Structure formats: C-alpha cells, structure tokens
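Progress against Task 2.4 (sequence-to-structure conversion) is shown through the following example record, which the project officer requested during the mid-term review.
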Amino acid sequence: MNTFLDHQNWRYATKKFDSSKKISNQDFELLLEAIRLSSSSYGLQPYKILIIENQDLRAKIQQAAWGQSQVVDASHLLIFANQTDISDAQIDEFFENTSKTRGIEIESLAGYQGFMKSKINELSADAKNIWNSKQTYLALANLMNAAAELKIDVTPMEGFSPADVNEILGLKELGLNASLLAPIGYRHSEDATQHYKKVRKSKEELFITI
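Structure tokens generated for the chain above:
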C-alpha cells in the first residue's frame, strides 16, 4: 500500500509531454489490459476506447481541445467514448458472454437478465447517456493507477468540445460520444508543474464519520 501511495504522490496532470519519448508496446498493452479489466456498472462496459494514431486527426482534436499541446505531444492519445444508449441486444450479448466465460447455462441467468433490462429501460435517453459517460471515469482511473505504477504519465482531460471531437471522428454515427481524452506518455523535463506540491484537502476536511 505504501508503494501505491508513492505512485499516487508521483503522478500529476502532466502539462507538457516529451514528444521524443514513446511508450513501449509491452507497456502500452499492459495499460490497455488495465482498462479492459476495469469495473463498470453491471459489468456492461458501455464504452469504446479509441486509440488515435493518425497525427492529422490528433492535430484536429487539439483544436477541439483549445490548443492543448498534450494532445499532440504525448506518446499516445486515447479517447474514452461512451455509448449513447444501451439496447436489449447489448444486454443479451453481455449475458451470452457471461454464460460462455463462466460455463453456465444462459437460462439460469434469465432472472437477472430481465431485472437488468427493466432497470436500464426505465431510464430516459439523456439519463442513459450520462450514466454511460460516468462509466468511462472508472476505466480512466484504472488507466491512471496502472500508468503511475509504470512511471508513465496520464493527463485526464475534460477540457475539450465533445461535439467537435464527435464530428471529427464520426462518433455520432457509431452511437458514441467523446467523454474523456487521455494523452499518455512521459513528462518533459521543462514541465515545471511536476515539481509542485500536491494540493488536496486534509483528512479532517474530506472525511465524515457517521
């Protein structure tokens, strides 16, 4: 646990990446697996992770992110894009996967399958979109924790225009919405913010015991 806390104290929202330093394929695959193993409500993982390798697209996304250099200078750029809806068919696919993975009869899951559909179908379209977007933050947290262990920097970014990124990547047609940007790579030696002390609330301010 002390090591985990050391990693959390090491990490920060990197403002300037060293564009000459690239993440190894082995480490990158580990980060992707950390995202894949992330928790999500019901285990549905109602999102896609876009790996943006095309530099022209990254330049366009940078403009949608108000010119922030991390988008183009980081080794890799990930976009967490939530599904805007969850259909019965997608829930059925989840239970088929559960049945296959765990080696159990899908009929034994029918009760929970029906319950899940009833709870999700009662949500409005806007509520589904918001709920799905929240799931991307859980996946981002797994990425950030795994990256810190590898001494790889991640900048979680909400500072961009989702509508513009959706248009650039044609996400609306895919039933997706850009929720978060995550440039990942290595901090530049000239990034002064890496030396700032971490500012957080004290335990007395943050926690309430009832």
